[in-house]
Amino acid sequence: MKVLMVIPGFYPIRGGAETMVRGLSIKLNKMGIQTHVMTFNMDKKWHPKWRGKIEVVDGIKVFKIPALKLLPSSPRVNMNVNLIPGNFISIMKDYDIIHFHEAELSFPLFSSLIKKPKILHLHGINTNFIERYHIHRIIFKYIANYYIAITKEMRNDLIRLGICQSRIIYLPNAIDVELFHPSINKENNLIMYLGRITPVKGLHILLTSLRYLKNPVRLIIIGPINDLKYYETIIRLIEKEKQRGKNQVEYLGVLPLKEAIAFYQRATVFILPSYWEAFPVTILEALSCGTPVIATPVGGVPEIIKNHETGILVPPGNSIQLAKAIDYLLENEDVRSKLSCEGRKLVEEKYSLDIACKKLYLIYRQLKNF
User: Fold this and answer.
1) CA-CA distances (angstroms) from residue 123 to 101, 149, 211?
2) Rounded to whole angstroms, what are the CA distances from 263 to 44, 173, 282, 325, 366?
3) Which of 62, 158, 183, 282 is least enclosed, having the fewest CB within 10 Å?
4) How far apart are CA 253 and CA 321, in angstroms?
5) Mean pLDDT per 10-residue interval, the chain, length 370 residues
6) Would you list the domain boundaries of the chain?
7) What is 190-350's CATH superfamily?
8) Strand-strand pairing, 168-170 and 190-194
9) What is the CATH number of domain 2-174+352-368?
């Protein structure tokens, strides 16, 4: 069986969807399902390249097709990038199943010329846009055989948009629990954030919360800059915190995977203070490394974090409550130990790549005989 994963961006770009596709592709290939990836040719900052090429990334064959950014204001390559879809279509003809990973419709629309079984794996969905434009809504209903929702909320959105329940599969994000594993090398009062530098992630709330802490901390910030003006705001907040002299704050940019994992393992607490999330892979990665998590109850986060059972939940935008939660975990080793054990157990039992790939294998078999 041959499967083509199709996603707008892939490594060296690292986000939730990109990480998921990489992990699934590696595991599925090991299971004997020949799995390749097709993506736009871009650098890690989403800058498009007009030349196409073929690469092998982590043993995965990756087709990087030419890309063109039509809207300068957008941080991402836009939907009309593949102006000449001939090569795009010819690649897809060689596969049994086409597995799309995107919320936009560019790839699936072009693929309508190919009569192959298709899956649309939604890592986010703009329901307001789809509901507003009726034609768009009609197209959305017929571009795939199956739709994968990574959260229960997203599954309900699909039903509301008119997708038959029998065509919707709930498959939350998953990670490699062998790669992300606990370590005994913990650093006292090390807290960390890993994610995009963009307002929706609420990093400014985390930085503001530091002034309210009773305990001094070292904060490590890891992630790409998606919003330059916001990044400048973050740098100003970091400088102010350094002037206070109580806490240490370091922005490390984008790190290689092994280095990021080492910080997950060393951290006392992982914090994700977002205003919006789909189903954050970073929370799964932290839990799998045995690191307690403080997060906000947005999107799919409450499906992972049960307050005071598998992590701590605080209201979005509330720096004082966040500071109290950080102090609470820093001062209570027994609570951290409990959350560490429960978090690791949760990921092993529900969110491992092995579980996700076994479910996908059954879906693929059913689709191949469709």
Assistant:
1) 7, 7, 35
2) 21, 21, 12, 20, 41
3) 183
4) 27
5) 89 79 94 92 66 86 76 44 58 90 63 81 71 60 88 91 92 96 95 98 99 98 95 98 96 95 98 96 98 98 98 99 99 98 98 96 86
6) 2-174+352-368, 190-350
7) Glycogen Phosphorylase B; (3.40.50.2000)
8) unpaired
9) 3.40.50.2000
